[in-house]
Design goal:
Elements: H1 2-19, H2 23-47, H3 54-69, H4 78-93, H5 103-121, H6 123-128, H7 133-158, E1 162-164, E2 168-172, H8 173-189, H9 191-194, H10 198-226, H11 241-245, H12 248-262
Antiparallel strand pairs: 1-2
Helix pairs in contact: 2-3, 2-5, 3-5, 5-12, 7-8, 7-10, 7-12, 8-10, 10-12
Amino acid sequence: MFIKRITSGIILIAIIILTIYIDWVCALAATAFIGLGLYEFFTMLEKKGISIYKYFGIGLGLMIPLSILFRFELTKKWELLFLILGLLFLILMQFRRRQNSGVIMDISATLFGILYVAWFFSFVIKIRYLDGGLWFLTALLLITKLGDIGAYFIGSIFGKTPLMPRVSPKKSVEGAIGGLVFSILGAVISEPFLRLPYSHVIFLGLGLGVLGQLGDLSESLMKRDCQVKDSGNILPGMGGILDEIDSLLFTAPVFYFYLSVILK
């Protein structure tokens, strides 16, 4: 399992290195991750017995990163308009149903998947498209993924105190602390990319470290609800795509808005 995990990790790192330097290639890779993540998320919900609109949701979700990739902005608040239209179509589709039970659950679950996976992860593309976006995205990945790595290894070696056994039995307090330390270390390493005072760097490391772990725990909570161990099996030893991007789903939007304020 450890060998498989390392191999999958190397493959992911190689994909990042090969795609991150060209903005539109990076956007295409992120779009592919979103499509796979949506498929895994909706498949989990199906296993729970929720009749979501799987392929409609995937198609609608992919329109978000693609619209950013092609720099399509119908209005200044186009994302809100897009979500309203998506909700309208989902409601209209209910009139074809033979029964009324489960309507609210099915609409809510489909829309939540689009927001949770597609919209949140699309901020990775927005960050890459900023001036200096290559370095900002590199910093985000270093801070978030070093936090994941630190939590895993410190937890595996020193973990004794359960963090939230109801949500994720294997996660420990020691691992969580280790993850925060590694996130701060990632922020310090990223200082030449960020070109911010060290007070901001430490704050980012701590804040994004906490958010990354919350993202991981949130997906664990959903998996427990759906009674699955991993979101998928596309990455041997690591699970699915959603298992690997879950921490970025929370850190990417917050980091983008933080940069939007700092770079004004």
